Amino acid sequence: MTFTAKDKASILVEALPYIQEFYGKTIVIKYGGNAMINDELKEKVMQDVALMKYVGIRPVIVHGGGPEITGFLKKVGKQSSFVAGLRVTDAETVEIAEMVLDGKVNSEIVNLLNHRGVRAVGLSGKDAGLIQARKKLATVYEGDTSRKVDIGYVGEVEQVNTSILEDLLDQDYVPVIAPIGVGQDGESYNINADYVAAEIAGALQAEKLLLLTDIEGIYRDFHDKDTFISTLHLPEARAYIRDGVIAGGMIPKVEACLTALDKGAGKTHIIDGRLDHSIILEIFTSKGIGTQVVR
Amino acid sequence: MTFTAKDKASILVEALPYIQEFYGKTIVIKYGGNAMINDELKEKVMQDVALMKYVGIRPVIVHGGGPEITGFLKKVGKQSSFVAGLRVTDAETVEIAEMVLDGKVNSEIVNLLNHRGVRAVGLSGKDAGLIQARKKLATVYEGDTSRKVDIGYVGEVEQVNTSILEDLLDQDYVPVIAPIGVGQDGESYNINADYVAAEIAGALQAEKLLLLTDIEGIYRDFHDKDTFISTLHLPEARAYIRDGVIAGGMIPKVEACLTALDKGAGKTHIIDGRLDHSIILEIFTSKGIGTQVVR
Amino acid sequence: MTFTAKDKASILVEALPYIQEFYGKTIVIKYGGNAMINDELKEKVMQDVALMKYVGIRPVIVHGGGPEITGFLKKVGKQSSFVAGLRVTDAETVEIAEMVLDGKVNSEIVNLLNHRGVRAVGLSGKDAGLIQARKKLATVYEGDTSRKVDIGYVGEVEQVNTSILEDLLDQDYVPVIAPIGVGQDGESYNINADYVAAEIAGALQAEKLLLLTDIEGIYRDFHDKDTFISTLHLPEARAYIRDGVIAGGMIPKVEACLTALDKGAGKTHIIDGRLDHSIILEIFTSKGIGTQVVR
Amino acid sequence: MTFTAKDKASILVEALPYIQEFYGKTIVIKYGGNAMINDELKEKVMQDVALMKYVGIRPVIVHGGGPEITGFLKKVGKQSSFVAGLRVTDAETVEIAEMVLDGKVNSEIVNLLNHRGVRAVGLSGKDAGLIQARKKLATVYEGDTSRKVDIGYVGEVEQVNTSILEDLLDQDYVPVIAPIGVGQDGESYNINADYVAAEIAGALQAEKLLLLTDIEGIYRDFHDKDTFISTLHLPEARAYIRDGVIAGGMIPKVEACLTALDKGAGKTHIIDGRLDHSIILEIFTSKGIGTQVVR
Amino acid sequence: MTFTAKDKASILVEALPYIQEFYGKTIVIKYGGNAMINDELKEKVMQDVALMKYVGIRPVIVHGGGPEITGFLKKVGKQSSFVAGLRVTDAETVEIAEMVLDGKVNSEIVNLLNHRGVRAVGLSGKDAGLIQARKKLATVYEGDTSRKVDIGYVGEVEQVNTSILEDLLDQDYVPVIAPIGVGQDGESYNINADYVAAEIAGALQAEKLLLLTDIEGIYRDFHDKDTFISTLHLPEARAYIRDGVIAGGMIPKVEACLTALDKGAGKTHIIDGRLDHSIILEIFTSKGIGTQVVR
Amino acid sequence: MTFTAKDKASILVEALPYIQEFYGKTIVIKYGGNAMINDELKEKVMQDVALMKYVGIRPVIVHGGGPEITGFLKKVGKQSSFVAGLRVTDAETVEIAEMVLDGKVNSEIVNLLNHRGVRAVGLSGKDAGLIQARKKLATVYEGDTSRKVDIGYVGEVEQVNTSILEDLLDQDYVPVIAPIGVGQDGESYNINADYVAAEIAGALQAEKLLLLTDIEGIYRDFHDKDTFISTLHLPEARAYIRDGVIAGGMIPKVEACLTALDKGAGKTHIIDGRLDHSIILEIFTSKGIGTQVVR
């Protein structure tokens, strides 16, 4: 389909109220899934971030990188064992995870953004002490009981030190963050990127947190497309998790939304990163996409 | 025609290179003709200016108002005589012109912009001594000879004092300027708005001057649509005026472009203000519209 | 009478304590009456404002223009009807009022100040949304009952948005304000200039509000010069209005003072604009002039 | 003679052009002679400086203190010998001179200004290395020959380090400077205050240097009041010194003016400090007083 | 003893934690006693202050000068009488005290610091109204009763106006303060320098107050070296004064500490100025020296 | 050996002139060799950098990482071939090099500095486009002729874009830079860290470039300790390279020094990183260590 110049002009104008609304606001994007693997989608995410920057938004990117870590562990012939679905992460594993996340995935995103005229700066949780972390134990359920198991250098966020983010944002850089935290003794922790994005959105009092996922959003019944949920409020979301309506891979996404809202983010959105320009669709069009979790 | 969300997203992204190009740049718009009379077009110009502002451009508006002045003179029963096609402007006439331009046309534009969330401030050439003017004589041709005739308070720009414009632009206001200049003794002069826009574009070293007109642009032969000129260079433009290719109402437009370029503006554009969103079409799409006059 | 250089020096020095007292303070002047009609007085007011500016005061001018509006309405053959002494102001009338106030009276004051080396900028309530207004109904008394009558585009101040004033004052401009407000739908309202000045003095937390009038001040008994009141306190002023001691044209003046004080202005003064340099007399000499209304 | 309020107002207004002219300008005042001894005159100088400050001038005071030093040396029973009219200044003498100038005369001036609401700060040439000095030899003439004689800690200005002055002026303080310089090895030098004022006026590129003296100005013939010189140009001044028209105590005054002009001051004035408010008379009235030495 | 380069490096590194701790903090030093008389010690204090400045501390010096005043009074043959151990200070005495303190002692310290590359500025309590003072009466005990006696221009601090200190500190100057205060009528008061330092430390909310004394610190029993007190808390200190454990010359020192703590200083230290580099020892080494009085 | 507090104080004071000299200056450190492998030395380098930061120096770290890259390539079973002593660097190799340098070596240094209270931020040449690079061909000598050979993603610096460094330094961060450059098409290049440090020192107009090496400095004759060169001037250095006096591994070090000096660095130093606190020894002690290459 081709557009006339006139069509283009009206669409630009239609975006104006959204541009006004988010002018000067901070939006945190958890970047992961297909949008990070598929080259065409990747290209479109970069365009979206560049557009955000130019119309006055302050974007902050937090990325994952699970598949790339798995690929690299395989390459070095490192076997992984799993507990409760989580990879046991010994010292060598976390070192490789950090190398892959910070030295490969992060660098590539930074590079792509710089190529689009946006001044991006890559950070990990170590830079200027950005993410203070602590060990997170896995929970193993056995019948009616559960117990906590140490699975190594898997962490959770203890504190976000936003000063480096604010300094960079104020000078018009786009921070790109690898989800590595640093512990009391300087040890590295691999942290779920959804949670890192949530904590950063909270700590920055961001206007929005956008989680790019590989699903369309949340369904009341996963098998019935008619049960799609556009908006989910905090109490409802908590109830759905408790009652098992929200389950499996959706749990960390929704929990990340709850955390971000609890700590001060404005709104949170679980969107389908497999769509072209899903970020722009969410921010600049009247309908929005995916499921929003709000207060 | 309706657009899918996806269409909209791609069009926004297509605008990105133009947004980057003009980020932080000053663009002077001469606003006049049908775009100022037709309510729908007016609305669209306001949207265009708001969009420019929000994507980081610094717009400056200079407006005309001939028809409104004529209307008001009629209302007060004031007869006008003409010399060489120019209205003889006595003290009462210039007073009414100033009232209409500054107290009506200017206020209305300011008001419309404020309603779109843009902080506009109306100025005339008197505010903070913005436009120093002097009397402009009319040239009357009689056979092979010509003579200069005093037609009253019709002026030309002597000097632009940009400090108030820079102070307002730096604080994110949109200046809207009525084409009234002030003489040595404090007397008012009515000045052709095209020339005022040109002088201001030059004095501000603006990136672009856009003249909104009621024609599509310039033709080598007005009767032959195939002779449309997209780009005109300075020497060519001067030759065309000398040789009569450019004539009549086009002369002041092209002269304004030449003046702006001579005094430091980057590019100048004669565009068709009768088109919806002509400003956005010119700035944000690859083809541009109308005739550009460049160095 | 001629002064020796020595005389002049001592008088300058005598002004020192007043200069110190008002250094850096904002003073709002309601400019109107004879001081705006008589050319010699006008000249002196301009000198006074220039002096204020140069000794470190931040003056803000609000002007009226009733007689000029009346004159112009007559010129265009517009008949006015009156309700409760107020002009019924239809759309055409308010348009003319705005043209006269903003495009003629305001421009002229700005021009005169610029000629004295002061950088003045003319504003109406529309610029940057300075004065949000709403319709004001007239009160018609019939025997013991009263009813409200819609007399068109006569307004009252709903809110003052001081940002443009502060930005201009901080950059050493003198704002000159025409008493036109803007309603919810962008419609213009003509507002009594005394009230506009009062609201602006309050919103700016001004040190003083000076109302230039055509009387010497307030008398307890208008026929007995010995009953002149130098200082009036808030409760007293309210009582005098209630009891009819203050009546007629004095009511809006005193009400303006009360409003300014209620909203945060420091002191208010009703002074005789028919005196040469009445502003300087009030500010820089030990005795002050006119009637001050204070907390 | 008493003035009406009206008189006062016109005189204030008459000063306006002078206030405009010197707004934001630096004026260096050499304060000494009778104006520093007579309590009434002293009071008036302080008022003048306060007025200057409040109307936007940046005054800098350099003071002398010869008579006070002499008085104190007498008190401690210190005998002085003289060479070529200059006091031989041994280590004890310069120590006492510094104590008197910095610890007494300077403190008193600072104190008087602070009492008038001006924030004055006392400095000597030692503070932040303000005045780098070197020894100045006396010239003894014997018949047709002359020789240089070491008379101890009498100095001349080598370099003025204006940073502390600029920092204080920018923060609205009035610097008051005692004419003590500091040598390479940290030793103190007593320097002629006229020269110190001249060097500081030059280094600050001051608008004016005012030297308060005990004479009316310069006469071509000291005995003939009709030969008073209002304006003296550089070459003329040099010729008059060479030819002995300017002689005796006038030489250092005129030389100070020449130095200040050579180093970048705008104008210099030798004025009669015995007149009430001589500073104000010079700056704020049309006639000026005394003799000006200009380029 | 000689150090290898390696030794030096480790010692510099050992100081690092102390440098970090005091970076950007204000430390007030009461400079007096032997450290001000002995040339070698004096040199070392100056080095210490320079070092403080360069490692990011904001030092403020308050000096005494009793012995120098006494010496000078003797020189001018001025007899002093004493009441309750305090010198009766008539007008002539306070004038000499001010000259000595401000014009000699202060200037010399400023000069020594400037010679070490530190930009020092000398102040007395008169500069910019730094120290507002009032008369302090002496208390004479006669048997069980006491009475207050006027001993002239001996003062106590009424108020510290820190603006000049903050302006100078923010611009990287080191203020050096002579303990002269100024009364309501502009009269000078000689004030105990310990108290001045305490009030200034309080007013600046200084991190530390260091009092350089001629003793090692405080002993519970002056004759028994084993009773040395390293740390004294506020209530304890008050009890010791009440019970006479702290007596004689120690009282004003400890009272100064209490005043500083009460008004907002962080910690106070009574240290032995007779030790080489006592300031550095206190600040940059783990042990500290002398007695600290803390909350 | 133990030091008394007094010893410590004198050593701190001895460092004062060096602290003054480098206050506010930028010093670039190429960190590599043993100082990066040996844990104890590593710890000492971190202390040295922290000390530099706290005494007002602006340190910038550029690190190498050859041995770590080699180790990792071995781990993944990647075979390397060599041309002219340089590793042929295919796409997979440069990806691993980047991961190791940016995601492991860089992160670790950043982490160690943060643990010492210094706010360090890791960068690679990709961040904000810091290092623009281009392919560097290897030179293969065959008899008398030489030819250029493409060995893949080995690069040289084309341009340094210092804005991110200046923004971080101005906000008191310590930049730590991995020697990865980015080409026209976004491809990564591995660059010799000595050259990167040199280019950055030049681009920042750094006061000093310190190259930490595993030798004591430069000898005229490597076998004769008596031929040690303390200072080498530019022309001499060039001659020594040409004549083979400087050969082998010393060539890139000296070339780096020459490049830094050519591009604007003040001085350059080749120092022995195997010594404890070699950085502090070079900067803060009178003797300096190693070989300095100067203009």
From TrEMBL, chains A, B, C, D, E, F:
Q: Which GO terms describe its cellular component?
A: cytoplasm
Q: Where is this site: Transition state stabilizer?
A: 30, 253
Quote the Pfam families the UniProt record gives: AA_kinase (PF00696)
In Swiss-Prot or TrEMBL terms, this protein is called Acetylglutamate kinase
The answer to whether UniProt assigns keyword Cytoplasm to this entry is yes
Tell me the protein family, please: Belongs to the acetylglutamate kinase family. ArgB subfamily.
Keywords, comma-separated and alphabetical? Amino-acid biosynthesis, Arginine biosynthesis, ATP-binding, Cytoplasm, Kinase, Nucleotide-binding, Transferase
TM segment ranges: none
| Ranges of residues in domain Aspartate/glutamate/uridylate kinase | 25-272
- Under Enzyme Commission nomenclature, its number is 2.7.2.8
- What subcellular compartments does it reside in? Cytoplasm
